[in-house]
Amino acid sequence: MSLQPHMEDFVQYFSGINLSIDSANFDKFGLKAKLKHYQKGELLITQGQPAPKVFFLVKGFVRYLNVSVEGKEFTQSFSCAPSISGSTRAMTRNVDALFSIEALDDVICLEFDWQMFFEKMQFQPGFMQAYNRLLENMFIKKEEREYAFVQDSAEQRYLTFLDTNPQLRDKIPLKMIASHIGITPIALSRIRKKLQ
Amino acid sequence: MSLQPHMEDFVQYFSGINLSIDSANFDKFGLKAKLKHYQKGELLITQGQPAPKVFFLVKGFVRYLNVSVEGKEFTQSFSCAPSISGSTRAMTRNVDALFSIEALDDVICLEFDWQMFFEKMQFQPGFMQAYNRLLENMFIKKEEREYAFVQDSAEQRYLTFLDTNPQLRDKIPLKMIASHIGITPIALSRIRKKLQ
DNA sequence: GAGCAACATTAACCTAGGTTTATTGTTTGC
DNA sequence: GCAAACAATAAACCTAGGTTAATGTTGCTC
Questions:
Q1: Is residue A87 classed as helix, strand or coil in its secondary structure?
Q2: Which of A28, A121, A189, B120 has the fewest C-beta atoms under 10 angstroms from its C-beta?
């Protein structure tokens, strides 16, 4: 009785958030996932379309990308394996996604159907509690980001980004950093020149 | 066997989020709260101090207020009864609060100890699920706010505020609206003049 | 190696919103 | 009724960052 490939990683990740699950018990849930591969540039979910899936990134990294009506790109966030990805809004409220999730790399992930994921969770308090933790962390991150946008200069946000995302700083184009901290690539260029 | 004053309101509020609790069952949890009154201007929790409490606002409304190192006020959000209030970060991570919660009115609320609240939740899936919903909604709101800060002009944020908070627009000073949408009162004044 | 397509930088200019300082309401308390 | 404290507006000025457009730069692919 063994878990499907990479599911072990998922259980471990969730265990790290809340220690009340182990693989043996987990197997009993019958939670199934599709193993998926995405190549650099491909989309896991697409802005404007339903996205009733939760992803567990086994390898690679992605960004959450919103394109405004004027055609401007905004990188809401990055997510690096191992991590959970998906649009909370789209899956829990059953509406279209407000952003796309783009592979920035070759990505290996598990894809869960949210409906099933949610139902299984109902019957396993430890599982639900881990999801709780996840939501708390996500909320707290957005709150920190709110502070950053209101209180910090673009320069400070850039420095904070470099500081908190050392694993990304040399792997992604600068324009993605710019669109993540809410400025144009030109403004970022100016800031970088000044900092030299 | 009856609930303590206003607890019924709390149960109803939580039921509205997720229908799996009713007062009769709820009473069995033994979840206790202190009934508190705050006068306009008083603080429910204080920035820089521990805040291991969850509040249920029975009457009145509050704002979440952060003061930066340079002394600038930022109103993170408003909350009107009936609603749950508190610092998710401070209570779940057991750290000092990054903002104060200020009564903008005479406030009546129930005050729960987070530790107890959390423990009771563990044994009542329906309760935890309601908390889950709450977190999801909080997260989604912050996400919407993130979009607003990055994509909308101050003028647009002001109009959106008026639109989505009709119950507040005439009850709070303009400077609070300004500090909520991330501009100075002077800038808001300019915008209002232009809109006349 | 030529040609093309992203990416990054630079310079010139523009604008939204910050800052400072005053002026005018408007509550609040004595 | 008056002073004190706060809230809102106004004018003058300043600056961070947007916009446009030109110029490099780094790969690709053929």
A1: coil
A2: A28
